[in-house]
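User: Can you predict the 3D structure for this chain?
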Amino acid sequence: MLFVLLVVVAAAINVAHSEEGYSSKLENIDVDAIIKNERLLQNHFKCLIDGQGCTPEAEELKKNIPEIMETCCAKCSDKHKEAAKKMTEYLLANKPELIKKVLDKYDPERKYTQKCNDQLKSGGVDLTGI
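Assistant: Here is the predicted structure, written as structure tokens:
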């Protein structure tokens, strides 16, 4: 449902792609621990933005970001969406520049953000100003 939320948190939860959707094996990652660890958070974003220090799972995610955004996260599980929403709420309140960097890289014209705007807003997220 909330494609950009998954994009923002996916590196942190190292979502891998499978034929049915995005892997559920990593749904129990402690997002709270990542939010509380600035170094860990920054490392994940370096992977997404600069391609530096990527784990194999994060590298696979980078390959899937265009599909995730284009389909408004159609293959995302509820657990992925919950974790993504939690991370995005934190980032909007504390580090909106990280969301902007992800969007600037993967959706510079904001066409996917605009396409999925209704879904984002129904989930309580407004990225119009980012």
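The two ends are 19 Å apart (CA to CA). DSSP finds eight helices and no strands in the chain.
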